[in-house]
Amino acid sequence: xxxxxxxxxxxxxxxxxxxxxxxxxxxxxxxxxxxxxxxxxxxxxxxxxxxxxxxxxxxxxxxxxxxxxxxxxxxxxxxxxxxxxxxxxxxxxxxxxxxxxxxxxxxxxxxxxxxxxxxxxxxxxxxxxxxxxxxxxxxxxxxxxxxxxxxxxxxxxxxxxxxxxxxxxxxxxxxxxxxxxxxxxxxxxxxxxxxxxxxxxxxxxxxxxxxxxxx
Amino acid sequence: xxxxxxxxxxxxxxxxxxxxxxxxxxxxxxxxxxxxxxxxxxxxxxxxxxxxxxxxxxxxxxxxxxxxxxxxxxxxxxxxxxxxxxxxxxxxxxxxxxxxxxxxxxxxxxxxxxxxxxxxxxxxxxxxxxxxxxxxxxxxxxxxxxxxxxxxxxxxxxxxxxxxxxxxxxxxxxxxxxxxxxxxxxxxxxxxxxxxxxxxxxxxxxxxxxxxxxxxxxxxxxxxxxxxxxxxxxxxxxxxxxxxxxxxxxxxxxxxxxxxxxxxxxxxxxx
Amino acid sequence: xxxxxxxxxxxxxxxxxxxxxxxxxxxxxxxxxxxxxxxxxxxxxxxxxxxxxxxxxxxxxxxxxxxxxxxxxxxxxxxxxxxxxxxxxxxxxxxxxxxxxxxxxxxxxxxxx
Lengths: 215, 271, 113
Fold this sequence. Notes:
The complex is a heterotrimer of chains A (215), B (271) and C (113). With 215 residues, chain A is of the alpha/beta class. Chain A has helices spanning 20-29, 47-59, 72-80, 94-106; strands spanning 7-11, 35-39, 63-69, 85-87, 110-113, 121-124, 128-131, 139-142, 146-152, 155-158, 168-173, 177-180, 183-186, 198-203, 206-211. In chain A, helix 1 (20-29) packs parallel to helix 2 (47-59). The radius of gyration of chain B is 19 Å and the shape is globular. In chain B, 41% of the residues lie in helices and 15% in strands. In chain B, strand 6 (140-145), helix 7 and strand 7 form a beta-alpha-beta unit. Chain C has 113 residues and is α+β, with helices and mostly antiparallel strands. Chain C has helices spanning 3-10, 17-34, 38-53, 87-112; strands at residues 56-58, 64-70, 73-79, 82-85. Classes of the chains: A alpha/beta (215), B alpha/beta (271), C alpha+beta (113). The interface between B and C is medium-sized, with 27 and 21 residues.
């Protein structure tokens, strides 16, 4: 077994102008210890990123025992893969809060897995992504976009706080009613073609349904 | 507030006996007779009146938003496509059940009374809070029942509650009547039900497959096909409600000819 | 029993269900409406008999107290066969009754004049 059982802390660069992967690689190359505590600072790391870090560490025969981060999403990713992690609140900089806010308003949707049945209601401040059907009598509402990976048969309300650019998309768009911002439209009378996803958005003051190119 | 507004609760106790169908058809019939009519869906848990009237895709606001003062009453009212005299006030979210109080219901009905001659309240099944709220807001009631023991028993319970709460008059509608089965003594007769419940019979509705067809389409029977047996029954009920005197005929006794004579012979008591 | 029931019995067919339904309903409704259990009814019967027995001699075994339901009104019906009056007390009751009748007559007379 290895004699050097000392724990070392390695920090990742969290500015956007630096490639953290290559810097981590270099740092591990000159490293003496086999056990590493990795401070990810405010980097937003997905599960994919975490597993590539693990891969790099294995290449240099080291083991990362703990991840430290100020970004909750990174903590979630590491925990999801079964690694120990700690959230570092003290070093939470203004910069990262700003970043986090941007993330939640832009790219972090509320995610629901399962069918939404009559009488049920799901609301989101931001986008709403549903993996399942929205049955007649159910209501889904988001301040951003509504995306349904399934059949949308109930009522959907996108841009509920007045965002005219919000969109509603579904694999099968057969709602009872669609609402975008303050516009209301009844669902289409004729059945849509099978297997073609559709989206609804506001075009010249009306809600228009068209084929979906990309989510 | 218009003092001559008739606020009628349509209730049954048991579910599935035809409250909502009766509410929809009475609403249409009264509207066709020129009366301004509002139908109020008080079944917040399991609302269906909008579906039967074919108005489910026109609902933007509900009673909930009216009570929370997020919109005006006329914004929430959904006018029927063909019968402009008829308006629906949809039920809110099922979660509304947690906070709605009898006085909230009363407030809504009072608002409706300003504009309408008839306010029909489609009551939820059961005798719990939903029913009590709806009853609190009503002046008179129609109890719907089927010629079946469970439905009659539940109706009896509801009638007891209506009586103790001073709802008057309470009238009876017997739904899903099958004259042949009654003539064969395989179903509680109209007289049986009337005697047991001791209520004046406002009308009876014959079992009719067209009822299912009409709910599929979202067009109440009385809207188009006035020739179907059930549609005629609904129209008669509406006219009686308006004070017209239309004779009530027991269809089981109407079954004439040799068969009936034979049946009567069979029913003679020997000991 | 009707002619039909006999024929059905002979043919081993089930009897018509409407009358069964009616009887079951009447029973269950009388119970529902009164909210009295048979135990309570029995206790009440005993106590009523005891009270009545203070004034008249009654046939304890024949006496029946039952609930009858008609037109949404539930009535308590007591059927108590009296064997013999207990003299002294009965007289007392009668005098009380007479007094009452007299006073009623007086009132009637006043309103007439």
